[in-house]
Amino acid sequence: MRWSSRLLVVFILCLIAVALPSLPAQALCDKPVIELLPGSGVPGTQLIVRGKRFETGKYIDMYYEGTIVSQGTKTSPTGDFSVGFPIPETCKGAHEVLVEVGSDGGTVRLETSFYATPGLTVAPARGPDRTTVTVTGHGFAKNEDGIEVMYYTGEDTYYRVAKDIEANASGYWQTTFETPDSERGEHKIDARGSISQTYDVKDATFQVIATITIDKSSGTTGESIAMTGTEFAPYEKGIQILFDGQPVATGIKADGQGGWEEAFDVPGMASGNYSVTAEGEYTLQQDLIGLSFEIKPYMLLSPDEGYVGMNVTVTGYGFAADEYVSIMYDTRQEATALTDRQGDFEASFSVPSSQHGEHKVTIGYSPGSIASATFTLESDPPDKPQLLSPSDGTRVGLKGGVTPTFEWSPVTDDSGVSYNFQIAASPDVTSAGEFTEPMISASGLTGTSFTVMEALPQGKYYWIVQAVDGAQNQGGWTPPGVFKVGLMPLWAFIVIIVAIVALFVALIRALVRRRRYYW
What we know:
This protein is mainly beta. It folds into five domains: about 35-115, Immunoglobulin-like (Sandwich); about 120-210, Sandwich (Immunoglobulin-like); about 210-295, Sandwich (Immunoglobulin-like); about 300-375, Immunoglobulins (Immunoglobulin-like); about 385-490, Immunoglobulins (Immunoglobulin-like). The protein contains two helices and 40 strands. It has a five-stranded mixed β-sheet, with no helix packed on it. The chain has a five-stranded mixed β-sheet with strand order 10-16-15-12-13, with no helix packed on it. The longest helix is centred in the last third of the chain and has 29 residues, at about 490-519. The radius of gyration is 52 Å and the shape is elongated. The N and C termini lie far apart (about 220 Å). The relative contact order is 0.07. Mean pLDDT is about 90; it is low at about 5-30.
């Protein structure tokens, strides 16, 4: 029993001895701490700063080499935080990271260091052979000189593509070069300088990929486009061209160098930009940089030349789908149409009266035009009519003051015909065939006769007629026809009247004398 009591006392004393040194250690674990993930790396690396055991809901300010890089974030309800930021351009070596967190007792400041190491970035990171790339160095030593860049075409084979480069005070530099001939796949790019060695530098890689090119970046439905492929697998089979994801050419085979060429027709689709790419047995779509092709709308006129009143069919391809379009002849709207799902349509219009020659027919969505074509209106002048009445040399009326009617033969023309008419007292005409001093003129006559409204005095007159078609083609003027107003001159008419009166008087006298004789 006595031994049991002693053992119990010893056990309690041991527990107290163990507990006493642990109390200060527990107090140390309650202090706030920060850590960096990662602790080193190339400038540009996303750095994560984690904090634990801070007061809850307190603002956090973070500095890198004295420059604030993050602010406004608060600690979590458990007093933790995790804040990320990209490492600024800084030279090789240790750089201070300072964290300030507010607290009820004042600001808590903790600092640590991030170690910047040299590394490379390349842009673009992939592309065809002989691509021009820009390589940028980060985290080299301050003002480090003698830097050179190596491009590896094999595991141990490289080209020195740049040299004598000098970094700035932040360890930053940049150079541009064209990649040497190299096989498809990833190729290492490395660098070294007077201080940094290749094993210090985080290298970059450039991926040589299969490439495709097309001879046109835009075109119309049905147009033939040539595509060329390079850096495909040697003798690769089953290559196909995809337009908006759909095959437009198949069964293509590469040659021994992985090259090929094939043509395809632009499919019937609405206007817009579409992806164009290719794939084969070993070359996937994601292995290529796809291309963009713009389908442009276009139109056809049938026929594209003719006469006034002709019916013209307009066919449009590659316009916006399910949209109304306006069809304009010069500046005048002649028809509208609704496109289908492929952006195609067909409509017609009658050629309006207009001047001979070329006319622009446009199609578009109001108010802008999208496509245009040319309609050529015939330029053949109509024939000359023949003057019918009054016939040449005819006298009209007994004396002046008459309004005669003139008639001529009809002229036919596909564009329709109207007539111009002139009367003059002189047969003199211009080089164009019209009278130099017309007394009466009329134009746009649709019939083949004309009655003057103004009475013509007695005299001699000349008249001409010209045919003009609906395309404003002017035929030649007829040779002047001549006619006279009045059967005879006035003095002759008076003489005849006087003579008749005298004869009448003489007859009466003779009759009177004869009666006297019988009586």
